[in-house]
Amino acid sequence: MVAFHDIRPRAKLHVLVVPKEHIRGSENLGERHLPLLRKMHEVGKQVLSENSGFANSNDLEKDFIFGFHRYPLRSVNHLHMHCLLRPLKHEVFNLSFTEWLPRYGFISLESVFRQIAPIESNA
């Protein structure tokens, strides 16, 4: 797994967390991927916390955004999780990182957890 800053950041802190295993996108995730998603979340929180200047990520949790862009709005067909620290750089980016289309666009990590393991709370 690797994490790096997005080359076109939509927030002051915008990091991508990418697994080495090839998975096309969030729609290809299943229950067997829960450990991978938890690790991606952990790595994203750690990188955002370390780069924000705050020692405790719990202080910032409400300002974190974690999620994925789905087809056809996904730019790269390899799973990568966007990890952002609010505020976003421009109001228009709120549309890019909000779940407003039922099957397309952005899906939060929390929603992915609910879809693939609806009985347990994972996020």
From TrEMBL:
Pfam families named in the record: DcpS_C (PF11969)
HIT domain location: 1-93
InterPro entries linked to this entry: Histidine_triad_HIT, HIT-like, HIT-like_sf
Short motif (Histidine triad motif): ranges: 78-82
Molecular function GO terms recorded: catalytic activity
Active site: 80 (tele-amp-histidine intermediate)
PANTHER family cross-referenced by the UniProt entry: APRATAXIN-RELATED
Protein name, entry field: HIT domain-containing protein
